[in-house]
Amino acid sequence: IKNDDFQRLWVWNCRESERAVAQSSAGSARNGAAGFQRVKRGWVWNQFFVLEEYMGSDPQYVGKLHTDLDKGDSLVKYTLSGDGAGSIFTIDQTTGDIHALRSLDREEKPYYTLRAQAVDIDTNTPLEPESEFVIKVQDINDNEPKFLEGPYVASVPEMSPVGTYVTQVTATDADDPTYGNSARVVYSILHGQPYFSVDPKTGVIKTALPNMDREVKEEYQVLIQAKDMGGQLGGLAGTTIVNITLSDVNDNPPRFSKSFFHLRVPESSAVGSAIGRIKAHDLDIGRNAEVEYTIVPGDGGTVFDITTNDYNQEGIVILKRPLDYESKKAYTFKVEASNAHIDPRFQSFGAFKDTATVKINVLDVDEPPVFNKPSYVMDVYEDTPAGTIIGAVTAQDLDASSSPVRYSIDWRSDLDSYFDIDPVEGTISTNDLLDRETIAQHNISVVATKLNSPVLTSRVAVTVHVLDINEFPPELASPYETLVCENARLGQVIQTFGAKDKDVPSAGQQFSFRTPKEDMKNKNFTIRDFGNNTAGIVTKRVGFRRRLQEIYFLPVVIEDNGYPPKSSTGTLTIRVCGCQSDGSVLSCSAEAIFLPVGLSTGALIAILLCIVILLGIVVLYVSLRRQKKKETLMSSKEDIRDNVIHYDDEGGGEEDTHAFDMGTLRNPKVVKENLYRRDVKPEMKRSPKPPVSQDSADIRDFIHQRLVEHDLDNSAPPYDSLATYAYEGEGSVAESLSSIESITVDLEEDYDYLRDWGPRFKTLAGIFGEQSETQSDSTNTENAH
Q: Quick one: pLDDT at residue 753?
């Protein structure tokens, strides 16, 4: 391609027009106003092109600007502004030639927008309006295709048919896709044939070879090329790697490495233990290699089992039943290995399973004795004499040596030594009397030991049931309280009752009920046995009356089915009650409530509790009444320990018949009827009575009696009180303090001697001292008058 082809010069067509200056002058003359008039443009702008990656030594010529106003007289100057003006692009001001100063890259910037203007060279006056044009960078094939997402990783199932999709690759070319073939990419495989192919336009990779086997080759590395220029010679190319893995499918059956496996196992191996391992190999992986092992029905199917180890897919042979060398020394059986997940597409390849033979030899081991039963159960009646044989155990040595066996009882299972065992014969006998009510079942452990090898022992459990001897007779289940209505019907069942027995077990016991022979002629009631360990009381007549007979006693004979059978006679108490027509009880005899047979323990306790509560209420009431009697009305604020009671009113002496009833003193019989408190002022006035003689014998006896009563009265106040009587005794050191003899007392008497009698009389001395002073003052006043 010649360089001149890229340096295109665009010639601008000039349009006929008058010069802008002339038009402007003419327009001004016609309009009579200054200024320019709009004119048609004198040039036409088109695009310029510049070649990218220009490597020449001189600036690259881009194009030429020209206006028809330029007459070649150098009066027009061309200016350039915009993208890259002055730095990338330059213009000759006189000729209008545009040059690129440096190499340009289209991938960096595809075009540049500039503005051009023609001005007067002298005045810089624009001759034409400024116009905009574009310089495009012309693309060349300078970028190779690139795989931005490479390298690629893909997978495809093995044994896939030809044309199976694997993956798609994509290459990107930075050149201009709209110009030439610089960005037209074509794909091809450089390495990876004949296994895979690629679509040259889309880059889709597919399988090209059928039945590729993962077990033969699992991974493939494919080299893909992308070339521009449509793949033509001279185009640029890029490559990427695609790692393709064949995923597994179940196309291989499991196979045993050998057809015969030989195992050895001791006869003492525990049930459930693993005794050997076999393995079938599967070339597949993952779930396609999972193997299931089964024992073909035959010799060892009932003795052995086989399971799969999920970690390494081995078959583990497990013992299902105990082995006995003396019974059978070898087992031979077949094991089948098959895939758990079969792909139906490959069933035509054959059966996906394999079979191997397993032979197991049992090794002889010196074993302990073996009992002929896993456990023993023996029965013995209670109270059986000591030394009685109740049973025997048998054990033998199954080994070839056939050593003798010795027996013993584990002392920890028979701490009280109830049993003994013959060490040679194995017979078990009682060592003591057995009581079922104490221990109903004994669990002992018998030990068998080989005589020539004491360390080899075996044990067996022996259960001894102590059978019950019928020791206790049956009795009524409870103290029944039976009521019969006066209007009871003939043949009516008025009570259902049962029985109990102290003998155990209670399960299986049968009781029968009947009327005693001596009471067969009872015309009132009879016993009916229901046959289910219960019976009923049945009336034999009508018309029961409480006023004639309130309570009936009915004997009943109860018999059990033990050996020997036991029986007892119980008594049922029947009370006659008044009932309504529907049979509901209205009232029964009051006396029957207190009968021991008719009252339960709870009822008696309730009655006693009520009685105690009533007694407590009575005692509390009495104590409150006594406490009220002890209270006395005292207006004095003095401490009661002074033993002086102050009254608001003082008696008037012997002539005062209002304070004391002298008639009462004469007649002691009416004292209790007319008894008044001496510490309270009477509310009723008594009529005056004539004075009585102080020498009367009945008065002295009455006063003496009242003194004794006051001394013995527990309800008297807890302090001394002053009691006044018509008759007083003689010989008092303090003499009489009563108002009865106050007439004879000298008003001028000095009471200071009371102060010498001690603290108890200080208050009394103060009272009388004040009275003396008051009387003296009054006397002096009268004398003054």
A: 73
**Can you tell me the distance from the alpha carbon of 91 to that of 85, in angstroms, rounded to the nearest whole number?**
9
Query: Which neighbouring-strand residues pair with 380?
Result: 466
Query: DSSP strand E in 175-273: where?
Result: 186-191, 196-198, 204-207, 219-227, 237-247, 255-256, 260-266
CA distance 283 to 665: 142
Q: pTM of the prediction? A: 0.41
Within 10 angstroms of residue 561's Cβ, the number of other Cβ atoms is 14
Query: Is 248:209 a contact under the CB 8 Å cutoff?
Result: no
Helix count (H) and strand count (E) of the chain? 6, 40
Element (H, E) at 689: none
Predicted pLDDT at 336 = 93
**CA diameter of the chain:** 191
- d(Cα 305, Cα 319) in Å, to the nearest integer? 6
pLDDT of residue 22: 35
| Residues 6+ positions from 259 with CB-CB distance below 8 Å | 355, 356, 357
Q: How far apart are CA 584 and CA 482, in angstroms?
A: 14
- Cα–Cα distance between 715 and 761 in angstroms, integer? 26
pLDDT for residue 507:
64
What mean pLDDT is predicted for residues 86-98?
86
C-alpha distance across the termini of the chain, in Å: 181
